[in-house]
Amino acid sequence: MLRNIVLAAGVTTALLAAGPASAAEKKTIAVSIPAADHGWTAGVVYHANAAAKEINKAFPELEVIVKTSPSASAQVSAIEDMSATRKMDALVILPHSSEELTTPVKAIKDKGTFITVVDRGLNDPKIQDLYVAGDNVAVGYNTAQFLVEKMGGKGNLVVLRGIPTVIDDERIKGFKDGIAGTDLKILDIQYANWNSDQAFKLMQDYLAKYPQIDAVWANDDDMLLGVLEAIKQSGRKEIKFALGGNGMKEIIEKVMAGDAMTPVETPYPPSMIKTAIYLTAAHFAGHAPVRGSLKLDAPLITKANAAEYHFPDAPF
């Protein structure tokens, strides 16, 4: 997360140093993101709007437009409408789903638009000019390694997936790699769509189906909230750990308090959207091409370092 903040600050400084261009050279940067349907995306919307406000105020040669969409199909319509009604010099997109957005984004790319992809990668990475995301493999792997160590490499696990995206695949790969060669057994693994209510219901199903569950991994903190509530209502006592990921402040506070069931966390800051927008702006206003990939670290957050990741005034 610190790396993310430092990078954003550095890009801001570079933009300020560049100075304004003429109004005739004004560039449009469209930002397409999911609507705030859970905590993490609420943070994304917050940081995207903040970046747009700051850049539009400071740089008259740039116009940043933020559009939110409640579903993948709505997001496809939104970016197609923007592409049809205005010249988009750049599109910064956090896709609802990799599958449905890949072809529409490629069509926009083919018009000469600079493409920045954030978080949920497209199925064809050649489409993107810039990619900004957390290290999803490390989110899964570091969590798995904690469980291996604390559980002596033995026990029954249940896992909750998010939605079918590249980042979900990466998290699951990291987790499976992390427990490979141990006697930790995944009893069940199903999608709960990064939704607390769906996770609550799925965890209830797991609890009804499996008499012995030693640990749970919900690969997102919104789902973890639903899992914890289901465990609480069940009265089950054998579950040693229920872990998530993303760095939600409520979960960070559990780690800070030394919560026995949720003693660790992994970061995946929604502020990465702000970093992505600033990097895209720097491509046009900074007089230097910005291309490639930026992967943010995902170290294990423990009671010892949790305060560094706690932002009580943030929306997530």
Automatic annotation (TrEMBL):
Residues 29-286 form the Periplasmic binding protein domain. Residues 1-23 form the signal peptide. Transmembrane segments: none annotated. Keywords: Signal. SUPFAM superfamilies: Periplasmic binding protein-like I (SSF53822). Its main location: other. GO terms for molecular function: carbohydrate binding. GO terms for cellular component: cell envelope. It is found in: Cell envelope. Belongs to the bacterial solute-binding protein 2 family. This is ABC transporter substrate-binding protein. It comes from Ancylobacter pratisalsi.
